[in-house]
């Protein structure tokens, strides 16, 4: 993912011949506003060196690789027929429309003693004196390896991180590394994010992160080894990546809205797998330490249509409040008081025909939750119909929720985005109701806003005159 010349480029793992995982390609889409997208031809296709796994992209502003001024450079993993993994690069001189694979690939050969060795993330490290070098972060088993290069072609190992830090169940994948200011201070920290293959909070795959320092060679964590920080507590937030070179110093990311426990079985037809909404990242001091917070990008407001608003609604136990708005594409902003006497309180979404997805809070156990036990189709996986939770302490006795409801998903950001849940759901088309509930005692809803959302535009892929799709070619 890289921004260049007014376009956000999103490259994604793609199998063009099936809706289940297969020989991986790089699909490609672009957007000028993070909301409306145009599909472009496949950027990278398998060749004699292997299939094309995940990676990163940057702009080579100083032409360090010699491919041309402001070349767009993609780094990716090859997996060969023996499942050995190596790192390669390709370049584009026409804003990512066509790609040439470097003739000297792989730039980092497959090691003899590491099976999982993939997902290169590139960044330029400024040394503060007008110079700098390229850095590559690579996932290797249950660790992240760092390499440095002056030119994107010649790489040397420079350090490693992992080996007992964070959550260690399942293979580590898809690292990201970036620096952010700490809100309200003159300080900054580096953030290392890592996809983990199993035993995330909601089961299966998820995304953890680390806060610390990066010296241009390797990463060190500010927290003890046993500290585990999760970017999302829902079941469907994996392989999160941020855009390189985003304008105005913004750090914007999104994730794969899926889970390896059931990614090949979800009950869809013409598609399987989607992305979360783009979110803007910041670092916030908390009582527990510096933490990552996420907010939906403001560009999404262009989808808002009808606005409905209520103030100081009293929720009585057993008597839900039913707003006069229904739909399968909604944005909801709610502020609820959280009396300790309440058993639970929250919002039921995509309600109807015995179906509902509940987003709520249990004050006695201090747990925020998403309950998708009755969220629609679930028989495709034994673990899908479940309740997902996150420890939560409301700020000043208030629960603030920002929720996006879509046809097959919900995304929840709580209390300024310090906690998030990303969840797939598969309700029936008639399940479009909304209700707010409280159990145990009355609860006041201080503020409630609901917007119907228009559909984003997705421009189809344009083919050549003979109906063919142009693909990447190998360099001569």
Structural write-up:
The protein is an all-beta fold. It folds into two domains: 2-296, Tachylectin-2, Chain A, CATH 2.115.10; 304-456, Exo-inulinase, domain 1 (Jelly Rolls, Sandwich), CATH 2.60.120.560. The protein contains no helices and 34 strands. A six-stranded antiparallel beta sheet has the order 22-32-23-28-29-30, with no helix packed on it. The protein has a five-stranded mixed beta sheet with strand order 1-2-3-4-33, with no helix packed on it. The two termini are 26 Å apart.
Element layout with pairings:
Blueprint: E1 2-4, E2 7-14, E3 25-31, E4 37-44, E5 51-60, E6 71-79, E7 85-92, E8 100-101, E9 117-126, E10 132-140, E11 143-149, E12 156-162, E13 172-181, E14 188-196, E15 206-214, E16 219-221, E17 229-230, E18 238-242, E19 252-256, E20 279-286, E21 289-296, E22 304-315, E23 330-337, E24 344-352, E25 355-362, E26 367-374, E27 387-391, E28 398-406, E29 409-414, E30 419-424, E31 433-439, E32 443-453, E33 458-459, E34 473-474
Parallel strand pairs: 4-33, 8-34
Antiparallel strand pairs: 1-2, 2-3, 3-4, 5-6, 6-7, 7-8, 9-10, 10-11, 11-12, 13-14, 14-15, 15-16, 15-17, 18-19, 19-20, 20-21, 22-32, 23-28, 23-32, 24-25, 24-31, 25-26, 26-27, 28-29, 29-30
